[in-house]
């Protein structure tokens, strides 16, 4: 039947009107206060803007990695990345009450997938440090910054992490599901409170 005209007939059974909720302070507080601490429309729009920026950064980073080539790497760095990635999977497995092998199987992760994961993490780290070095950013990170991050991570591991608007928040699986499993930090921590 190649080259013949085809006629399709479709019957429309219903038409729905798109309804967009008006963003008011009341609506924001009812829908975004419990999960994100947002109380008004201004905060909501700032949060949306921050989320869009974070998404754009993630997309840009992905493009940077796709266009980057790693010619060589140290075995020490590779082993450290393996420990970090495996540690993340072990933590998630324990969180869900299963063995790491069960967790990997449920997520469809094969040995080849894990190798790809290790290499992607290594590449990401190497590209990041190349940029930090080239832009002279390494000297701008203070000992206080490092200590703040270390303290935050320790509090998370100990189960004593307190949410800090714009900096850290322990998201639940329900929170993550509400965000369609997008792990962009701004979607969870919101924006830092600014003094007027």
| Averaged pLDDT | 87
Low-pLDDT residue intervals, each spanning 5 or more residues: none
Strand content of the residues, in percent? under 5%
What proportion of the residues is helical, as a percent range? 55-70%
Q: Could you state the order of secondary-structure elements as H and E? A: HHHHHHHH
List the total number of helices.
8
Termini Cα gap: 71 Å
Sheet of most strands? none
Q: Say how many strands there are.
A: 0
Could you say which structural class the secondary elements and strand pairing correspond to?
A: mainly alpha
Overall geometric form: extended
Query: Rounded to an integer, what's the Rg over CA atoms?
Result: 23 Å
Detailed description of the structure:
The chain has 196 residues and is an all-alpha fold. 59% of the residues lie in helices and 0% in strands. The chain has 8 helices and no strands. The chain has helices at 25-36, 41-66, 75-95, 100-106, 111-134, 143-158, 173-178, 186-189. Helix 3 (75-95) crosses helix 4 (100-106) and helix 3 crosses helix 5 (111-134). The chain starts with 24 loop residues before the first helix and ends in a 7-residue tail after the last helix. The mean pLDDT is 87.
């Amino acid at each position: 039947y190649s080259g013949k005209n085809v006629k399709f007939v479709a019957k429309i059974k219903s038409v729905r009107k798109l309804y967009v909720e008006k963003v008011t302070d009341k609506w924001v507080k009812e829908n975004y206060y419990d999960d994100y601490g947002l109380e008004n429309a201004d905060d909501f729009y700032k949060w949306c803007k921050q989320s869009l920026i974070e998404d754009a950064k993630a997309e840009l980073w992905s493009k940077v990695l796709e266009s980057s080539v790693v010619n060589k790497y140290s075995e020490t760095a590779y082993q450290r990345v393996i420990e970090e990635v495996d540690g993340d999977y072990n933590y998630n497995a324990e969180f869900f009450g299963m063995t790491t092998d069960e967790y990997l199987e449920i997520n469809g992760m094969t040995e080849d997938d894990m190798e790809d994961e290790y290499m992607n993490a290594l590449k990401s780290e190497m590209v990041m440090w190349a940029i930090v070095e080239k832009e002279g950013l390494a000297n701008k990170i203070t000992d206080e910054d490092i200590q703040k991050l270390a303290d935050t991570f320790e509090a998370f591991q100990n189960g004593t992490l307190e949410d800090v608007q714009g900096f850290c928040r322990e998201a639940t699986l329900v929170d993550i599901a509400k965000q369609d499993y997008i792990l962009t930090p701004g979607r969870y921590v919101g924006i830092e409170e600014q003094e007027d």
